[in-house]
Amino acid sequence: MQQRATIIAVLGLLLAGVIPAAGQVGPGASPPSEYPVATDARVGGDGKQTRFVVDFTRKVDIRAFTLANPYRVVIDMPQVTFSFPPNTGDHGRGLVKAFRYGLVMPGGSRIVLDTTGPVRVEKAFVLDPSDSQPARLVMDLIPIDRESFLRAMAVDSRQRDTRKNDAKSEPPPTAPADARPLIVLDPGHGGIDTGTHIQEGDPEKVLVLDFANTLRDRLEKTGKYRVVMTRTDDTFVALGDRVRFARARSAQLFISIHCDALAKGDGEAEGASVYTLADHASDADAARLADAENRADVISGVDLSVEPDDIADILLDLAQRETKTFSLQFAQQVVREFKSAARMHKKPLKSAGFRVLRAPDVPSVLIELGFVSNAKDLKQLTSDAWRVRASDALVQAVNAYFTTRIAGGPVR
Fold it and tell me: 69: helix, coil or strand?
């Protein structure tokens, strides 16, 4: 136990960090209608020079930078309301393959352009509105070689790191007097990262937030637990920040909530699944899903080079041994209880290398509620009555898990 405590302490120095509770808007915050509105976006040009233009209802400040692996251009700005025509960004032109947009933090929005190769931002500025013309963001891109791209990216990355270090960091949360177990609910995706797509209806980020809200209310109703969420609105939270959020609060359980989908032609699948962390996926479907979920940071334009390097992997593995056992025990309990309320996948208990499950000292599971690509599953996912039934089943699993933990015996 002393060795494990030492490992956890060292990991705390290596990995722990603090983020503000995602999506919590303070008193006096401006309602969405007061934010600038982005009304249209378009791409023009060719492979030698490409121009990207966005129309706004009023001028905004922007900052553009590039990222590699894959090649991207990121445009950060204060929070705006995106009111683009349907399917905007699905297709690009010239050096831009496609682009996406959304909220990345309270008060901050982002546009991410996927490029065909290494590019340089030759110009990036915002014009004031004039006469009948709206305010406009104008950005010109030109192709460059990879070496020049990486050199420019390194310079920009150092400048961004300096700005981060200069910012005052929030002190870690203080331990509350309330001794009830703390559960962190993690609705997947959010903001610029919509998650799985369906032709009609809400995207995954909305479905899982609705479910997490119901589950939080049902857990709190028992009076047995403290419950916090990694996000409470349509805000993007990086995968590493979700893990740090739970660790900084000394959570006793972390539940990440998602939906799955299969592309046309990939066959038919249905039902809920529960995943735990593993170095090697339990099957090909688990590997596919983990790879898709682990791309959330790439989708949002997060620079993965700032993530902790592999120096902590050995310590991480040692500390996670007991945590993995507890995670598996809870996952098994979820499968038992969830059968009474939800359609289950033919192989409901799986494992894979999900980054969001890598807290070494917080038992963690990822629940795929069902497949949005399956009509019967989708009908469940959009039903208020089903969300209540399924949440009550998860509450029973949580109760059984903590009863066993307190008693000190194994889950059978």
Answer: coil
Band of pLDDT at residue 314, cut at 50, 70 and 90 = very low
pLDDT at site 198: 73
The span from the CA of 350 to the CA of 272, in Å, is: 11
Mean pLDDT computed over every residue of the chain: 84
Cα–Cα distance list, 151 to 145, 199, 304 (Å): 10, 41, 16
The CATH number fitting domain 36-165, selected from 2.60.40.3500, 2.60.40.1120, 1.10.600.10, 2.20.25.90: 2.60.40.3500
181-407 CATH pick, 3.40.47.10, 3.40.1360.10, 3.40.980.10, 3.40.630.40: 3.40.630.40
**Nearest of 367, 358, 359 to residue 335 by alpha carbon:** 367
CA distance 372 to 200: 11
In which residue are the tokens 């507890």 written? 326
- Res 176: pLDDT: 61
Rg of the chain over Cα atoms, rounded to whole angstroms, equals 22
Query: How many Å separate Cα 229 from the centre of its chain?
Result: 12
Asked if the domains 36-165 and 181-407 are classified in one and the same CATH topology, the answer is no
Residue pLDDT, tens place only, 20-65:
333 333 333 444 458 999 999 999 999 999 999 999 999 999 999 9
Pairing of strands 37-45, 50-56: antiparallel
Question: pTM here?
Answer: 0.78
C-alpha 146, offset from chain centre: 29
The reply to whether omega before 70 is within 30° of 0 (cis) is yes
Is residue 340 within 8 Å of 393, Cβ to Cβ? yes
Mean pLDDT computed over 67-76: 93
Q: What pLDDT is attached to residue 29?
A: 41
Written as six digits, the tokens of 308 are 């902790």
Lowest mean pLDDT among 55-64, 181-190, 193-202, 343-352: 193-202
Domain ranges of the chain: 36-165, 181-407
> Distance between CA atoms of 318 and 148, rounded to whole angstroms?
41
Nearest to 104 by CA among 197, 203, 238: 238
In whole angstroms, give the CA distance from residue 266 to residue 287. 15
Amino acid (1-letter code) at residue 211: F
Res 200: pLDDT: 74
CA torsion angle for 212, 215, 216, 218 (degrees, to 10)?
A: 160
